[in-house]
Amino acid sequence: MSDATFSESHADDIPLEATPAIDHVKRALYIILGFAIAAIFIMPIVWSVANSFKLPAETLSDPVRLIPRNVSLDNYRNLDTVGDGLWSFVRNSLFLAVGTVVVTLLIAVPAGYGFSKFRFPGQNVIFVVILATMMIPFQSILTPLFLILVKLRLANSLTGLVLIYVTFQLPFSIFMMRNAFDAVPKALIESARIDGASQWALMRRITLPLALPGVATVAMFAFLNSWNEFLAALIFLSQEEKFSLPVMLVNVTTGIRGMIDWGALQAGITITMVPCILLFLTLQRYYVRGLVAGAVK
Amino acid sequence: MSETAEAGPSPEEPPVVTREPHQWLGAALITPSLLFIGLLFLLPMGMTVWMSFHNWPLLGEPRFIGLENFSELMGDRRFWSSIRFTALYTVLVTSAIFLVAFPLALLVDRPLRIAGFFRTIYFMPVVIGFGAAATLWTWLLNPDNGVFAELLLRSGLVDAAPRPTESFWPALIVVILMVVWKQAGFTMVILLTGLQSVPDDVTEAAKIDGAGPLARFVRVTLPLMRNSIILALVLNVTWSMLAFDQFFIITQGGPRNSTVTAVFSIYLQSFSSYRLGYGSAMSLVLLVILVAISAMQMAIVNFRKAPE
């Protein structure tokens, strides 16, 4: 959330009579307080990452130490003894996340365009129904979803789970994309049409490029939500070879053959967390845009 | 919410749209999304109602039993205690999140580079999932070789490592701590957009009228950021009422099933006992409670809005 993200900023209420010296002290106190709080928020993450690179024995004997005595990947290697191994979980999670992003975009972008640039009968009712589904939590329809997946022969399948993730991503994504296309100036479209641009060229050359920030927001939320989702993955995936990273983590915490491998757990947590954090750091203005869109609604 | 106001085509819509030659194309563009929402949302929604009137085992024929599931549910002590526990958790965690997030929002509401940096750090735990966050805290909290136990022992504050998940209140408190750590940044950002939507000249005018900083905040800033406060409240309450991951992972519902939440008990009935009809009836009751809470929150907002 760089300063550019929050365009309006309030001026500090510094009394007029405040001397520069007092300003400096105030500023120093502000920075110290800010960093102290930052430490609280970041330390659990740092501890987990640090311990993932220790020798398994050191993870157990000295979890507090931040710099490993011996940097080692043994904790990561030990994950290979869990189920089908680390890469199988990473592959499954990637399939879920990338699949959800791609299918969500393929459906939400045209839908947002349709709602924004066309008028057809029943449009408003349909749009309100789609938005209303946002208020109904997916937790309350898990049981029938399970039966539907069984009927579609998609129970215990990553593809089935992708379809469910897409469905619950759609209302927000369509809302986001409609707003993104609404923001494209009408005059631009009009003049392109006068120049003889076809419907397809109009969308591909003019509206879609201008709506790209909306696409980035939708893609980012779809990725994070499906990468991190736990309850549906726990219910709908029943074979270890299909498990996603969060399900694997919980299996490690409940212990394999009665033993909890805390070092391997840190390796798993690090692999699960780091992509989300990196994605957020690079695309944070799109993340905030999504939050603010929700706030305005 | 005002989406209906936005959704309606305004009468002054420029002619481009009305001259659009291919109306059917618009309908075609939204059809795939309707298929998804119809098949994987509206259909299961209806099925939940239908299934709740049945004895519906995983294998074997479902049998229509009318309202029997609901009458059994009325007397189901476990279910109601899970609802009561979820309500308690919701009140406590939402208050805790606001108590932390509001000061944070005020702290990072500065036009300074470093404030932007702090915002990013405070927000970071939000993007890691509940699964990773809860397993991470399970490790931090574990008495044998967790970081917290180690720190407490080294500091000499305790003689033996605490075992928070072995009794009710400590278990609830550590889950709340974890959720505050993970979610405070989200509420902070929502409140921050509210703070920044208050025009400077309004607070300036109040200042000139002689209002002190506290009076300015309570009388001017708070009412003007009401929408963000309500949004943060509604989202936090809804998410907490649906809590599952954090209790499934950190406390595993224990000690003695005292931290089983509503969704947790639906999960146990539907996917551990495979009583799908009964689980659907529970889902419906939870849904009704959720809708009632949202309606109540909306009613309060509208009631406050009316005198203006």
UniProtKB/TrEMBL annotation, chain B:
Residues 83-297 form the ABC transmembrane type-1 domain. GO terms for biological process: transmembrane transport. One of its GO terms (cellular component) is plasma membrane. It comes from Marinibacterium profundimaris. It is a multi-pass membrane protein. It is found in: Cell membrane. CDD domains: TM_PBP2 (cd06261). Keywords: Cell membrane, Membrane, Transmembrane, Transmembrane helix, Transport. The keyword Cell membrane applies. Its main location: membrane. This is Sugar ABC transporter permease. The keyword Transferase does not apply.
